[in-house]
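thought: fold this chain, then report.
action: predict
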Amino acid sequence: MDFLSRPHWVASVLMLIGIVLASACLIVAGPLPFDIAITRALQAVFGETPRWAEVVTTTTKSPWVWLTLLIGGGLAFIRNGWHGPVVMLVAFGVIKLLDLGLRAVFYVPKPLPEWVPVAAISHSSGFPSTFALVYAAVCGAVLLGPRQKGSLSLWVSWVAVMMLVVGLLTRVVLGGHWMSQVLACYAIAFLVVLALYVGLARFVKPSNALSTVFLKGS
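observation:
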């Protein structure tokens, strides 16, 4: 599962997804056409306030976020070597600053009870989603680096994918964010991670797998 045989192509796709969804969220200032239907469908399947979702939500809040970073760093090291944890930690710092900056400029409403059931009403901006940015930075550092050989690193890739899926379901089922808001933040955080991997590749030995993947053809 190597997503980056063409890193520049991946970056272009992520940028396009992020720009389209983020722009739509800001312009509409509410749910996109598919958001309400998807939220209601997922709540019909999982319930409106499943306990597992409430637990997962806490994993990006202090002090549990440090456990999330520890686990993510371990997964990134198994799959990508030392580059993974380094990129993950730097990406975490970058997206926290990005989160603060975007919130200072933009305000987009979160889901409201008149649209869908909401586990906990919040008047903070729904975009960006701090939860989504953190999860995508952690899991992106695992998935977007050059994978080491072996079945273990492949399994680690699937663990990261499942974390992203569970994270997405968590915020949508609880009515914490619209799916469009979460996906936009996933794309933005992935782009940050990818940029950091490309930048790091320029400082390692030419024979290093990181350089081989990210600087090929540049």
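thought: worth noting. Residues 1-5 have pLDDT under 50 and may be disordered.
final: tokens above.
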